[in-house]
Design goal:
This protein is α+β, with helices and mostly antiparallel strands. The protein contains four helices and three strands. Helix content is 34%, strand content 10%. A hairpin with a 2-residue loop joins β2 and β3 (69-73). α2 (38-45) packs across α3.
Length: 96
């Protein structure tokens, strides 16, 4: 006689067994995350976690709250960068 492990409701509904919510996946197999943690957003910008929290607190970078979690929409980062670019004075002598 074989024993079967009972399926959980998540498995029956076709949800991933990892317990994580699915992300959007384009046809090339990469995963597009719609929401980032504050740490992930800081990594993408190349700044520290503390500065990222300050930017969120000051409203410089958009964030959303889901329950007790704070998340950064992935499209908020390019908008923030564009605001930085337009706020900088234009000069031909770049410091790069």
């Amino acid at each position: 006689m074989t024993t079967r492990t009972p399926r959980t409701n998540r498995q029956e509904l076709g949800a991933p067994a990892t317990g994580r919510t699915p992300s959007m996946s384009p046809s090339d197999g990469t995963t597009i995350r719609l929401l980032l943690t504050v740490e992930e957003a800081a990594d993408r910008l190349g700044i520290g976690r503390t500065l990222m929290y300050a930017l969120v607190k000051d409203g410089e970078v958009e964030s959303v709250q889901i329950g007790r979690l704070r998340r950064i929409p992935a499209d908020a980062l390019p908008r923030y960068l564009e605001r930085l670019r337009t706020a900088l004075p234009h000069s031909n002598n770049s410091a790069a």
